[in-house]
Amino acid sequence: MANIKSAKKRILVSERNAEKNKAIKTGVKTAVKKVRVAIEAGDKNAAAEALVNATKLIDKACSKGVYHKNTAARKVSRLSVAVNKMA
Question: Which DSSP symbol is given to 3?
Answer without folding.
Answer: -
